[in-house]
Design goal:
4 helices, alpha+beta, three-stranded antiparallel β-sheet, 125 residues, 31% helix, 3 strands
């Protein structure tokens, strides 16, 4: 089977709107992993095994009052790899929105980029 690449966003919602987000990227090694919910279930299983088998992870879990979310594991993706592989996942990467530069003020996803180039001459016009 070819690896299936997943890339998706998880949002924290406060006052009915997203307040911050994490981008999750991972490769699935099994055909049974079809959706992002499948991916997150397998990540959850891996994190549980990591906490059960690694003192550093158990200590972090304890420090977080018995909670471990995607933000908490963002700095531990290397340590998690050995627990992800039995779940059919590898190469987990997590980018937190606070790891990103500020959004551009004058551009959106829909900005027509050539029209922003001062010297652009439309060859189709």
């Amino acid at each position: 089977m070819a690896l299936k690449h997943f890339r998706f966003k998880l949002s924290r919602v406060e006052a009915f709107k997203p307040s911050e987000f994490a981008i999750v990227e991972v490769e699935a090694m099994h055909d049974s992993i079809k959706t992002t919910d499948d991916v997150m279930q397998r990540i959850s299983n891996a994190v549980a095994a990591w906490i059960e088998n690694d003192k550093e992870a158990a200590d972090k879990f304890d420090e977080n009052a018995g909670e471990m979310n995607i933000i908490d594991i963002a700095d531990f993706t290397d340590e998690l790899q050995m627990y992800l592989v039995p779940q059919g996942l590898k190469n987990l990467g997590i980018i937190l929105d606070n790891d990103m530069d500020e959004d551009p003020k004058n551009f959106t996803m829909d900005t027509n980029l050539p029209n922003r180039a001062p010297e652009f001459k439309d060859p189709t016009a």
